[in-house]
C-alpha cells in the first residue's frame, strides 16, 4: 500500500503501507503457493509495487518458475535504470496508468508532473525491452478527451490501451461528481470504437495486418452488448469476442498486501475477502471458500432491476460485480451498460445516480448510490 502518489480516485486509498503487511518470508510462501497452483501470470500492483524492497527478488523467483510476470504502475518513479533491472529480473510487460491529458491526469493523481513521469515510464519500459500497455480510468473529467489522451500515448509505442470506468470505491467514492452518469456510457463506447476502427485502418494503410494495430480494449466494468461489443473485446483481426460475465475467482484471484484473498483484486474487501494466507493455505481459499466461488454458484435469481429483465441476463449476469456492488450496495444490477442505456434512450428515458450513503474511509470501501430514472432531454 506504500505509494508515491495519493491519487484522488484510488480504490485502495493507497499512500502508506499497512502496519500488518506480509513479511518477506510470507511473500515468498505466497509466491511458491501460486507456482504450486499452476499460476500462469502474476501482475504486481499497489500502492506502487516498485517501492517494495523485495520486488526484484520476487520477480526473479516467479519468472524462474515459468510464470509470466507483469506490473501495473503509475510510473512516477519508473526510471530507465529501474526498468532495466526489472527486465533483467524477468519482468515481461509493464502497464502504465494514464488517466487523461496532462491537466486531467495530474488532477486525478493529485500530483503535478505525474503525467510527464508516466509518459517517461512508458518510454523507459519499452526501451528496456518490455511489452508496454496503458490503461485509463474514464470519468467525467476524462470521458470527452479520449482522442486527446490517445494522441499523447501513440508516440510511446504501446501495443494496447485498456479503458475502464472510475467506480465509486475508496477515494473515488468521496468524489461523486467524478462518476459517470449511466447514459454517458453511450458516448464513451461510441468514441472508443471509432478510435479502434481508425487504428485498424491506419495499420492496413501502412501495409501491416490488422492484428498489428493498437488494441483498444474494454475493462470488465465497461461496455456490454452494444453495436461495438466485438470491436472493443476482440483483438483486431482475431476471433470475435464478447462479454461473458464476471470471472472473479474462476481464472484469477487478488491478494492484498496483508494477505487477504478475494476473487478479483478490484472487489471491495468487506463483502468479498475469502480468507487470509496467514490462516488458510492459498489452495484451501481458492478451492473451498464460498465467497471465492460466487460466480460459479449463483444464478439469474440474483439479478434485480433492469438486469433482472434483460435478454442478456444469463450470459452477462449483471456485468462487473465490483462496480455494481460499490455503486448500488450489492451486485446484480449494473447501470453502466451500453445496451441498457441505448434501450432506455429509445424509450425517451435515462438513468442518473444520486449518492445516498458515504464511504467510511477504509481501503477498498464504498458507499451507496440510488438510480433515478428521468426523461431524456428533448434534443439531447
Name its key features:
380 residues; alpha/beta; 6-stranded parallel sheet; 3-stranded antiparallel sheet; 15 helices; 11 strands; 16% strand
What does this protein structure show overall?
There is one protein chain. Helix content is 34%, strand content 16%. The chain has helices at 24-36, 55-64, 80-89, 102-108, 114-127, 146-153, 185-205, 229-233, 269-272, 282-288, 294-297, 305-309, 313-316, 321-328, 338-346, and strands spanning 41-44, 68-73, 91-97, 131-138, 160-165, 215-218, 254-255, 260-262, 275-276, 349-357, 368-375. The chain has a 6-stranded parallel β-sheet with strand order 1-2-3-4-5-6. It has a 3-stranded antiparallel β-sheet with strand order 7-8-9, with no helix packed on it. It has a two-stranded antiparallel sheet with strand order 10-11. The longest helix is centred in the middle third of the chain and has 21 residues, at 185-205.
Task: Offer a concise description of the structure.
This protein is of the alpha/beta class.
What layout of secondary structure does this protein have?
Layout: H1 24-36, E1 41-44, H2 55-64, E2 68-73, H3 80-89, E3 91-97, H4 102-108, H5 114-127, E4 131-138, H6 146-153, E5 160-165, H7 185-205, E6 215-218, H8 229-233, E7 254-255, E8 260-262, H9 269-272, E9 275-276, H10 282-288, H11 294-297, H12 305-309, H13 313-316, H14 321-328, H15 338-346, E10 349-357, E11 368-375
Parallel strand pairs: 1-2, 2-3, 3-4, 4-5, 5-6
Antiparallel strand pairs: 7-8, 8-9, 10-11
Amino acid at each position: 500500500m506504500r505509494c508515491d502518489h495519493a491519487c484522488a480516485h484510488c480504490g485502495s486509498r493507497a499512500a502508506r503501507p499497512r502496519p500488518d503487511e506480509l513479511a518477506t518470508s510470507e511473500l515468498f510462501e505466497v509466491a511458491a503457493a501460486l507456482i504450486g497452483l499452476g499460476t500462469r501470470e502474476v501482475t504486481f500492483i499497489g500502492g506502487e509495487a516498485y517501492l517494495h524492497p523485495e520486488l526484484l527478488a520476487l520477480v526473479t523467483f516467479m519468472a524462474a518458475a515459468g510464470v509470466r510476470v507483469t506490473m501495473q504502475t503509475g510510473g512516477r518513479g519508473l526510471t530507465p535504470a529501474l526498468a532495466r533491472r526489472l527486465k533483467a529480473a524477468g519482468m515481461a510487460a509493464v502497464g502504465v496508468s494514464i488517466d487523461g491529458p496532462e491537466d486531467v491526469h495530474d488532477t486525478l493523481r493529485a500530483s503535478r508532473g505525474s503525467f510527464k513521469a508516466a509518459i517517461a515510464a512508458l518510454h523507459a519500459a519499452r526501451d528496456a525491452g518490455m511489452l508496454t500497455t496503458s490503461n485509463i480510468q474514464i470519468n467525467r473529467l476524462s470521458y470527452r478527451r479520449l482522442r486527446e489522451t490517445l494522441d499523447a500515448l501513440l508516440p510511446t509505442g504501446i501495443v494496447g490501451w485498456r479503458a475502464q470506468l472510475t467506480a465509486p470505491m475508496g477515494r473515488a467514492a468521496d468524489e461523486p461528481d467524478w462518476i459517470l452518469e449511466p447514459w454517458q456510457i453511450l458516448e464513451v463506447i461510441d468514441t472508443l470504437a471509432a478510435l479502434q476502427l481508425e487504428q485498424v485502418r491506419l495499420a492496413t494503410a501502412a501495409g501491416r495486418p490488422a492484428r498489428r494495430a493498437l488494441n483498444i480494449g474494454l475493462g470488465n466494468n465497461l461496455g456490454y452488448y452494444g453495436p461495438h461489443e466485438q470491436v472493443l473485446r476482440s483483438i483486431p483481426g482475431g476471433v470475435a469476442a464478447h462479454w461473458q460475465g464476471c470471472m472473479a475467482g474462476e481464472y484469477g484471484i487478488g491478494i492484498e498486501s496483508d494477505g487477504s484473498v478475494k476473487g478479483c483484486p478490484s472487489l471491495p474487501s468487506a463483502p468479498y475477502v475469502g480468507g487470509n494466507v496467514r490462516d488458510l493455505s492459498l489452495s484451501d481459499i481458492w478451492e473451498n471458500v464460498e465467497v471465492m466461488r460466487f460466480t460459479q454458484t449463483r444464478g439469474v435469481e440474483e439479478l434485480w432491476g433492469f438486469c433482472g429483465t434483460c435478454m442478456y441476463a444469463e450470459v452477462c449476469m449483471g456485468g462487473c460485480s465490483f462496480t455494481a456492488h460499490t455503486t448500488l450496495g450489492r451486485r446484480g444490477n449494473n447501470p453502466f451498460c451500453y445496451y441498457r442505456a441505448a434501450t432506455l434512450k429509445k424509450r425517451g428515458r435515462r438513468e442518473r445516480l444520486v449518492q445516498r450513503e458515504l464511504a467510511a474511509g477504509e481501503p477498498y470501501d464504498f458507499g451507496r448510490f440510488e438510480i433515478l430514472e428521468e426523461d431524456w432531454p428533448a434534443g439531447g
